[in-house]
Amino acid sequence: MQGTVTDLSNLPPLRDSLAAHGLIANKGFGQHFLLDLNITRKIAKLADLKPDLTVIEVGPGPGGLTRALLETGARVVAVEKDVRFKPLLDDLVAASGGRLSVVFDDALKVDESRLLQDRPGAVVSNLPYNVGTALLIKWLTGPFRPDSLTLMFQREVADRITAAVNDDAYGRLAVLAAATVSARKVMDVPAQAFTPPPKVTSAVVRLIPTPSPLAPDLLESLQKITAAAFGQRRKMLRSSLKTLGGEYLCQSAGLSADRRAETVDPSEFLRLAQALRSRTP
Ligand code: SAM
User: Fold this and answer.
1) Can you give the pLDDT at residue 6?
2) Ligand 1 pocket by C-beta < 6 Å: which residues?
3) Could you state, in chain order, the average pLDDT of each consecutive group of 10 residues for the chain (281 residues)?
4) Helix H or strand E encompassing 116
5) How many domains does the chain have?
6) Residue 86 CA to ligand 1 centre (angstroms)
7) 110 and 221 belong to one structural domain
8) How far does residue 224's CA lie from ligand 1's centre (Å)?
């Protein structure tokens, strides 16, 4: 980069930073950049970060959202898989006054508590679409307990996370989310806001983990039940849950075995999971 960068206020525009480092988006890494700081600032504001939190940002890329997060005064640990961004992100680290560190790794594999060094954390990310759902499932089912997660997904995925029973988008992801977080869609972002534009509209979802997490064995049973039930979503539970003991589980949970997965609400799925857990030796 030309000149000396001393703080966030004199960083060059993101497009210039990308051009200066000869960087273009790589589809294989799900790269769709937000280069408009008005949008990234809005996302950082929606994240509503408490002052003591350290933010984990997955995929800083050229650093537009990272800049907006740093502007709020937050500390940020960014995890980026594409090492091409190192020189550009080094400039941002230099301008961050010691509040940004960047780890070049696969976010699916990192241990978030180690990244945070046991400090309280939140996640904010314009997620790479190709691994967005896998990352969300990792956070919903793993030991990491962030204060909040503010995440950009394809809108179709955002709808699957926030769907209610009987909605078309209702399925495993909605049940898992309802059992572990409160989730709210907070902003739609049109495709043209990204460089390059994706084929679909995106949406930001804000998730707050529930105060008392489910026991790991109950979560495991819930995942088994929902996988079986939604694997054959049009079939009656007696048949879709047959290999898990469908009739017995429904009876223990006080549900008719004639019901179909799409009509079973998250609290009923939890009762089925409890029945399965008590049955499993
Ligand atoms: N945050 C930037 C922005 O908003 O302009 C870039 C967002 S882009 C949708 C997704 C970013 O995630 C890219 O920088 C990509 O290289 C990175 N990425 C993709 N897969 C990743 C993974 N498994 N772990 C960490 N970063 C990943």
Assistant:
1) 60
2) 29-34, 58-62, 64-65, 79-82, 106-108, 126, 128, 131
3) 64 93 92 96 97 96 97 97 96 96 98 94 96 97 95 98 97 98 98 95 98 94 97 96 96 97 98 92 61
4) helix 112-116
5) 2
6) 13
7) no
8) 30
Atom of ligand 1 nearest to the CA of 60: 1
User: What is the per-residue pLDDT for 97?
Assistant: 94
Q: 103 and 187 share a domain?
A: yes
Backbone angles phi, psi at 185, to 5 degrees: -80, 125
Q: Which atom of ligand 1 is nearest to the CA of 26?
A: 16
Question: pTM for the complete prediction?
Answer: 0.95
CA–CA distance, 158 with 123 (Å, rounded to integer) = 16
Whole-angstrom CA distances from 55 to 36, 86, 119 are 20, 19, 10
Q: Which atom of ligand 1 is nearest to the CA of 82?
A: 16
Question: Are 203 and 223 contained in the same domain?
Answer: no
* Domain containing residue 128: 6-209
Residue 1 lies in a domain: no
Q: Which pLDDT value is given to residue 118? A: 85
- CB count in 10 Å sphere of residue 22: 8
> Where is the domain boundary, 185, 209, 233?
209
